[in-house]
Amino acid sequence: MPSKADVKAWKAQLVAQAEQQILKLTDSDQFKQYLNTLAKFHQYSARNIDLIYAQNPQATQVAGFKQWQTDFNRTVNKGAKAIRIAAPIIKKLTPADQKRLDTTDERAIVGYRYLPIFDVAQTSGDPVLSAKDFVKENLADHQNVTSLYNAFKDYLNQQTDLQVSEAPLAKLNGAKGYFQPSTNKIVIGGDEPDNALKLKTLYHEYAHSQLHGLKAAFKDRPRAYQETQAEAVAYVAMQNIGVDTSNYSLGYVATWAKDKAVIHSALSEIQQVSNKVIALSDGLTKQLSLQEAPKDPEHDLKKRSAQELNQSYQDLEQQIKRATGPQQKSELKKQLNGVHQEISERTQKQLQDFVRQNPEIRQAERNTGETLKR
Q: Which of 89, 230, 231, 313 has the fewest CB atoms lying closer than 10 Å?
């Protein structure tokens, strides 16, 4: 079994590796091109964001008719229905206007007009880089993550003041899940087909609850800061159980933390929560092992068929190859030894039974003068 010092070093190494990988991504030419793309899009007010969402909830990147042509080399599709946003009408004030409005400002908003804009999905032309170019949701399905996800969700509901529930992804406005500080609720997309991504999302939202809840020390951090921290914790937690989510997590972090200073500062504060999540996962993993193989694991193995034992042996060998944590690898090797022992004992018993049932078969008497050659 690894010592406490080994486990502590392992946790520190996971966080350090996360930071290195994120910083490496932000140095890439593709990521710099993505930032340049973002800079071309206007920043909209909360009022206009509401207007955009009310007219087209699926809109992700919007621009005017001419801007799509000049800045992105794309054209608006024929017949596309425009999204209308409010643009201020600014007038230069006369001395009389300034006196009437009791202001010294030279210009003021005197009204609004509604301008047409279009979403990227309503256009055609050159490709536009988006966060999806960095957030690649191609995680392979991993065994046992569903059990750990359910155990973690049950733990949070039963042992903490958090309430975790599920909702269809279609109702989450493109998100995989969310944390609501005012109610202390976590909602996860229940119909997410990728089990590893589902567990990672629960880690992400739990990190938000610990770092950015109403009473948390970092609740007032900017959004980019918060998302960087939550996803980094999720990445570290998944790494600890031997599931690499870098294709998703690192790109997700980088699209929020566009400044290296933000990444450095955000990651410097996640160590404590990362350790807490890892400890919880390790504890739940042990509990799941006990549930799967009750108090007498030897007795449980004896109930399995020969085919099931062989399959378990092969599965455990593969899990050991994928395992990254020393504690996880040690536990898997222990299980593998148990299965190997049962197969060996069962094989010996079958040979002995065969000999008893066939008395004409006798072992050849050893010739002490001969030696075995291998």
A: 89
Measured CA to CA, the distance from residue 285 to residue 295 in angstroms comes to: 16
Distance CA 8, CA 294 (A): 30
Query: Which amino acid is present at 142?
Result: H
Query: β-strands 185-189, 163-167: how paired?
Result: parallel
Question: Phi and psi of 171, rounded to 5°?
Answer: -95, 5
By C-alpha distance, which of 245, 240, 225, 330 is closest to 277?
Answer: 240
Distances (CA, A) of 323 to 47, 244, 277, 319: 49, 10, 18, 6
Give the contacts of 278 (CB within 8 A, at least 6 positions apart). Answer: 11, 14, 236, 237, 240
Instruction: Decide: 281 and 240 in contact? Cβ < 8 Å.
Output: yes
Question: Cβ distance 185 to 205 under 8 Å?
Answer: no
pTM of the model: 0.57
CA angle at 328 for the pair 324 and 330, rounded to the nearest 5°: 105
The whole-angstrom separation of Cα 215 and Cα 252 is 26
Look at strands 163-167 and 177-180 and give their pairing.
unpaired
Is 274:19 a contact under the CB 8 Å cutoff?
no
| Structure-block tokens of residue 112 | 């609004």
Closest CA to 22 of 237, 208, 231: 231
Collapsing DSSP to helix, strand or coil, 340 comes out as helix
